[in-house]
Amino acid sequence: MLREDPLYIDGAWRRGAATTRTAIIDPATGATLGQLGHADARDLDDAAAAAARGFQVWSRTSAYDRSRILRVAAEKLRQRADAIAASMTREQGKPLREAKMETLASADIVDWCAEEARRVYARGIPARRSDVRQVAQPEPVGPVAAFTPWNFPVSQPIRKVAAALAAGCSMVLKPSEETPSAAIAIIEAFHDAGLPPGVLNLVFGEPAFVSSTLIPDPRIRKVSFTGSIPVGKQLAALAGQYMKPCTMELGGHAPVLVFDNVDVEATAKAIAAGKFRNAGQVCVSPTRLFVQRPRYKEFVDAFSARASSLRLGPGSDDKSEMGPLANARRLGSIEGFTEDARKVGARIAAGGARHGNEGNFWSPTVVCDVPEGARLLTEEPFGPIVAVLPFDDEADAVARANSLPFGLAAYMFDRDAHRADRVAASLEVGMVSINQGPLALPETPFGGVKESGYGREGGAEALLPYLVTKFISHAPPA
After folding, report:
1. H-type helices in 59-179, by residue range?
2. Distance CA 71, CA 364 (A)
3. Angle, in degrees to the nearest 10, between helices 207-214 and 41-58
4. I want to staple 304 with a disulfide (CB 3.0 to 4.6 A). Which of 101, 139, 174, 349 is the partner?
5. Which sign does the torsion angle of CA 172, 175, 180, 181 carry?
6. Separation between Cα atoms, residue 25 and residue 29, nearest integer Å
7. Under CATH, what is the fold of the domain 254-440?
8. Residue 457 phi, psi dihedral angles, 5° rounding
């Protein structure tokens, strides 16, 4: 699906005018799949201008018609799911079944937003005079600049595209240059669904150049970013200079609290499934496992056995349970976390080494008895490595879970319903999952607190970041 003309501006495909190109690498083999052209300043100017024109058309299109086009695009994603998934697996590495599941779930997100588009209601406000009519009227904020990462190449862009378009906004989308085919497939689906020119535009390019060009552009009225905390802070600061609202879905370091009344084998299996999905390259991936001391050793043994049993291989192999890391940078990073843990005296209970000699494979790694000074306890690893530590009581577990400046997701496993509710209320995160793995459904809100960002994607809140409220007070003529 990699095109020679990968930019989509004002309803037409074009080649990027910049001389820079990105090599697309298969992370399972290291083979080069193709070269991706970049946008230059003129391309970005054209994209912003197209989005401004597209907004004038799309914001005046009825919610009914916007919803109809989104539903057609969702169906096209479903029809093309096999091809999209195959391209995603080649470029990003995740197992093919995960890639197809992501594509189909993304179509569900579009459907959800299509329905929400028809439920953006104005609110009548009782006036102090009987002859005055007062209305709070939601309106689309304007053209949006959206930036998305490589770990979920379909669902991350879709969360922004579907919500923004449902609200009546236009968009310039800048996805990851390392996994371009998924975003191209999204654009093709909306183009074929009949989306008017200029409403959705696609650019690729050097990230700092694209963001520093688009965010200050006066035609761009909002910024939406998913990615790392350091980059999110930079983009939020840049947007703040121009008083532009942001949605920031940033990283985390998700704690898991395992109390001593659980079924250890079932709990270990559930956490391992969430931890090693997409090779741990998930912002809500469980990363710090706190296990109540009476069951600590039993849990470590069960969890390590499950991690060691996972079958690694190319995502295209149906037997593979975990694919490679998406790029060589992640491989080096996980190796660094592992060596630091060894250096400070932690015990490697499973994995701890590269898997094979080809591609970016790293064995699922379980690190136990981790000293407080280990990087693994304070920095998001974003890969198939996890720390497991004992705790003694509820207050100790909550304090340690809340000890970092991150607050995206947390998990707990407990058969005491009253304690589960009490602890969930005490955790300083945007999302809590109890007795189950990660959740990111179309109908539920997704986002964090503290340094993990602000704003929500999904759920009834999905369209809110793309709307502003205009107050209208109408009195009779004098």
Report:
1. 63-79, 81-92, 96-117, 155-167
2. 39
3. 50
4. 349
5. negative
6. 8
7. Aldehyde Dehydrogenase; Chain A, domain 2 (3.40.309)
8. -115, 140
- What confidence tens digit (pLDDT) does each residue in 429-453 have? 999 999 999 889 999 999 999 999 9
Our CA dihedral for 376, 403, 278, 303, rounded to 10 degrees, sits at 70
- Count of residues for the chain? 478
Measured between its terminal Cα atoms, the distance across the chain in Å is 63
What is the residue-wise DSSP string for 346-376? -EEEE--SB-SSSSS-B--EEEES--TT-GG
- Token representation of residue 362: 């790293």
Given the residues 249, 321, 380, 457, the one annotated as active site:
249
What is d(CA 357, CA 242) in angstroms, rounded to the nearest whole number? 49
Is residue 283 annotated as part of the catalytic site, yes or no?
yes
Q: Which of 113, 169, 246, 283 is catalytic?
A: 283
Determine whether 249 is an active site residue: yes
Q: Which two tokens stand for residue 282?
A: 């998930």
pLDDT (tens digit, 9 = 90+) per residue, 21-68? 999 999 999 999 999 999 999 999 999 999 999 999 999 999 999 999
Token pair in block for residue 57:
């058309």
Domain ranges of the chain: 7-250+452-472, 254-440
Instruction: Confirm or reject CATH 3.40.605.10 for domain 7-250+452-472, answering yes or no.
Output: yes
pTM for the predicted model, two decimal places: 0.96
